[in-house]
Amino acid sequence: MSQTRRPMIAGNWKMNGLKADGTALASDLAKLLNGETDPVFEMVVCPPFTLIAGIAEAITGSAIGLGAQDCHAADKGAHTGDISAPMLADLGCKYVLAGHSERRTNHGESDADVKAKAEAILASDLSAIICIGETEAERDGGKTMDVVKTQLSGSLPKSATAANSVIAYEPVWAIGTGRTPSDDEVQEVHALIRAELAKALGEDEAAGVRLLYGGSMNPGNASNLLALADVDGGLIGGASLKSEDFWAIAQSCDT
Ligand code: PEP
Hints:
This protein is an alpha/beta fold and 255 residues long. The protein has one domain (8-254): TIM Barrel, CATH 3.20.20.70. It is 40% helix and 15% strand. The protein is built from 11 helices and 8 strands. It has helices at residues 19-33, 52-58, 85-90, 101-106, 111-123, 136-140, 144-155, 183-201, 203-208, 222-226, 243-251, and strands at residues 8-12, 42-46, 65-68, 95-98, 127-132, 165-169, 210-214, 233-236. The chain has an 8-stranded parallel barrel, surrounded by 5 helices. It starts with 7 loop residues before the first strand and ends with a helix. Bound molecules: phosphoenolpyruvate.
């Protein structure tokens, strides 16, 4: 973790939670923050669309930021069942995930689709958390670095800056499996991402972009992962559904 980039601890709740669960989880986190307005870490929760309005209320006055898990690339129109970036901004979101591997796999999202979504997110004055990462077959085939480079360059909008974009490296095989790459492997990929960002955005801008690690981060492995030089936080799935686990991960930023 660097001294200059503020770590981000972001929870991806995925398709979990009814109103009462989501409100209880968000309220617990707000209580744990205990009125602290400027913690060392930036905490973000990304509930399902159905819960966003309620969570916005539950976290009012706390330092918790609100995010969404996806959006459509268009502002409005004939897109039944979709949600646009302006709609999310209207609900008080600050962040939107783009290109989570479950979207890429389950909904066939390409790098071009992810880039179009990220452009829409930035155009609505929201920040994009752009997700990239290799499958197990790609890792076994020695293609991790190539896949990460291709996904990054294909998904990153031209208007990306350190202020409006965050990159989440999430090896697909580590998501929800309890397995993670070694600390050295994570650092190696994050260093590559920063080097590629420097080519796209310039050294100074790239130095400010936060790079999150995602994939089975938990209270037991968070300290080591968050201590890596180019890891600036975590995107957390399963462990973000328990306030004490998510809080413990956030606390690891302090060490
Ligand atoms: C995720 O889906 O973004 C994720 C990192 O999930 P988990 O923490 O459960 O592996």
